[in-house]
Specification:
Blueprint lengths: L10 H7 L2 H9 L23 H17 L1
Helix pairs in contact: 1-2
C-alpha cells in the first residue's frame, strides 16, 4: 500500500517506484487516514465494469446540463 494508515505517504516506496518529478508531486499531495471501508463510487456499465466510454459519456452529459442551466 502506498498510503500509510497513519495518513502519511510511504516515502521510501514512492521514491523507489516513481521518477523524481512524479514522486515530488505525489509527496506534495495531502493524505488522510482511512475513515472507513472502501466502496464503489462509480456507477458501472451494465457489464459491471468501469470504462472510459462511460466516463466520457458522463462528462458530456454534465457539460450539457451546465450549459442548459
Amino acid at each position: 500500500m502506498v498510503n500509510c494508515p497513519e495518513g502519511r505517504w510511504n516515502e521510501n516506496l514512492i521514491r523507489a517506484t516513481f521518477n523524481q518529478e512524479d514522486y515530488a508531486a505525489i509527496l506534495r499531495t495531502k493524505t488522510a487516514p482511512s475513515l472507513g471501508e472502501d466502496f464503489i463510487a462509480w456507477h458501472p456499465e451494465k457489464s459491471g465494469r468501469f470504462t472510459v466510454k462511460s466516463a466520457y459519456k458522463l462528462a458530456v452529459e454534465l457539460t450539457l446540463n451546465e450549459a442548459l442551466a
